[in-house]
Design a protein that fits this description.
Oligomer: homodimer
Number of helices of chain A: 13
Structural class of chain A: alpha/beta
Helix content of chain A: 25-40%
Number of strands of chain A: 8
Shape of chain A: globular
Amino acid sequence: MDPLPSWNDGWAKAAILDFVARATREGGPDFVPVPERIAVFDHDGTLWVERPVHAQIYFTLDRLAGIVPRDPALRARQPYKAFLERDLATIASFSRREAFEVAFRAHSGLTTAEFLDAASSWFKSAKHPTLGRLFTDCVYQPQLELLDYLRAHHFKPFVVTGGGVEFVRSIAEQLYGIPPEQVVGSSNKTRVESGPGGPAIFTLPEVRSFDDREEKVVNIELHIGRRPRLAFGNSDGDLRMLQYTGRGGGARLGLLLHHDDPAREFSYDREFRLSPLDEALRIAPAEGIMVVSIKNDWRAVFPS
Amino acid sequence: MDPLPSWNDGWAKAAILDFVARATREGGPDFVPVPERIAVFDHDGTLWVERPVHAQIYFTLDRLAGIVPRDPALRARQPYKAFLERDLATIASFSRREAFEVAFRAHSGLTTAEFLDAASSWFKSAKHPTLGRLFTDCVYQPQLELLDYLRAHHFKPFVVTGGGVEFVRSIAEQLYGIPPEQVVGSSNKTRVESGPGGPAIFTLPEVRSFDDREEKVVNIELHIGRRPRLAFGNSDGDLRMLQYTGRGGGARLGLLLHHDDPAREFSYDREFRLSPLDEALRIAPAEGIMVVSIKNDWRAVFPS
């Protein structure tokens, strides 16, 4: 039985099947012991849709009250102004850092438990603006199959996301079967305060880690402590993680998803400032990173 | 067959057996689904010996070259002076933070891979100064049995240590079967630099997280993202983690190891400044935290 029915036969699918075969062939030259079978996946644009803008930005727009600075001068300034005016075109022109710092700041003051409740409850009804389905149905079917296939071969998948770690944790177990301890992401600083209900964790306004580019490697080391064997990303923000995964010998696989299917999903790369794909696409061949085309490599995009 | 043969029959052993029975009784009121079966263990003094001073301090003393500041004025100042003079009595009188910042600073400039090599190689021959055995043989046999017992019931154990995360990771898999991604600890900031061998991770001199007291709760949230069901510690540094674990309903267990057996191990609590046990011992009863006595509760201390 085909373990990856939503993947078309082609180089990408062949590379995945070959990688897993080599990594799991006991006694073979590329055998990878089970504890070292670590796979890292970017989230937005790799496991699910990130256009027109990221789900976490829609979430932030829907909960504006929390992000409005009291200072009227700030309200008239970017990036706040675009959020207050729900100006998506302007938001999409921000750098990833500009846009996400508003999103991360939006929920400071909440406890992490309160934030998780807010996100879980939002996801119950929040719909993608153009695809006509819940955000939670905007996951990529071929990736769900790949996660299952890797797990069946005793790989442990981690999400390594530029998005907020708590935001992604609120749905990662339900959508991907990935537990919170296998989600690494951006985070704000937190403070623990002891009250009658015991210690509670409050989110502070300052960013602790913006999990993008080099910082993805920093966080892989901090959270996982082991060089992954497979990495899957879709933007320049994933390039360092792909390069880090690709070095070190033995069975290794780096995959880069290219959004080139406007009919079934979206078509974009370097011009999308929130998640640009330019440098990584150019140097992928020299780095041995396999480019996956949604149009050519995926038979289906979404779960039916 | 007794799953905990090195534990004497008594309240502590009964509490552990009862906790696991309740957590795993399907349909019972305290049933805990498998993904939520998170157990957190402090390291030094909880899973292995921390007296006369911590293994990481002996490691630092044995690799002095790296920690000697160039500035002669600094060399004459504490805490450096005591390390340079190998003055263990003075080192043991430091606060945990003072002593460990020297240890953490000692290896800045190395890549994390180089540090892991140095630690692994040191552990191959480093002997405990008074117990006449390798440091790696200074683990507590009852805790090895407890870890196995918990895993047999689908609990996932994490180490949450005030020690350096890379230092503990270098032996956690070998000693406890705990993989690097299940070790949370103190860490310095790191920087990723790209070279011909791909991205490499360098340790910087500044502390990123000193994983003690409230910070243990901060890091449990950051790394695990879920409130644990069982926590085991041995000092005031573990109190917040024990309190955090103890709240929230359902099957929960907090355990606090009291070192009260000078014949077989060591006897100490509030006077050991590197790892004091005072407040936690006083409020344990009111918090429902079970105090475990090495003398009374452990039939054996070390593996034979």
